[in-house]
Amino acid sequence: MCLKPINRTLLLELKRSPAVVPSGELLNELQALGLLCKPPSPSLGKGWLRRRRKRCERRCKRGKRAGVRARLRANSSRPALPSILLSNVRSLENKLDYIRLQRTTQRGTRDCCVCVFTETWLNDRVPDAAIQLDGLTSHRADRDSSLCGKTRGGGLCVYINTDWCNNSALVSKYCSSLVEYAVVGCRPFYLPREFSSLHVVAVYIPPSANAKDALAALYGAISDLQNTHPEGLLIVAGDFNHANLKTVLPKFHQHVDFATRGASMLDLVYTNVIGAYRAEPRPHLGYSDHISVKLIPAYRPLVRRSRPAKKQLKTWPAGAISALQDCFECTDWHMFREAATTDGFIDLEEYTASVTGYISKCTDDVTVTKSITTRSNQKPWMTAEVRALLRARDIAFRAGDKEALSIARAILARAIRDAKRAHAQKIHSHFRDSGDTRQLWQGIQAITNYRTSTPACDSDASLPDALNVFYARFEAKNDVVAEKNIPSPDEQVLRLTTAEVKKSLRRVNPRKAAGPDNIPGSVLKGCADQLADVLTDIFNISLSSANVPSCFKTTTIVPVPKKSPVSCLNDYRPIALTSTIMKCFERLILRHIKSLLPPTLDPLQFAYRANRSTDDAISSTLHLALTHLEKKDTYVRMLFIDFSSAFNTIVPQHQITKLGLLGLNISLCNWILDFLTGRPQTVRIGKNTSNTTTLSTGAPQGCVLSPLLFTLLTHDCTALHGSNHIIKFADDTTVVGLIENNDESAYREEVKQLLTWCKVNNLSLNVDKTKEIVVDFRRAQRDHEPLDVDGSPVEIVKNTKFLGVHLAESLTWSLNTGSTVKKAQQRLHFLRRLKRAHLPPPILTTFYRGTIESILGSCITAWFGNCTKLDRKNLQRVVRTAEKIIGVSLPSMSDIYTTRCIRKATGIVDDPSHPSHKFFSPLPSGRRYRSLRSATTRLQYSFFPQAIRLLNSKGQI
Question: Domains in the chain, please, with CATH?
Answer without folding.
Answer: 8-51 (no CATH), 68-305 (3.60.10.10), 307-375 (no CATH), 463-601+648-700 (no CATH), 814-954 (no CATH)
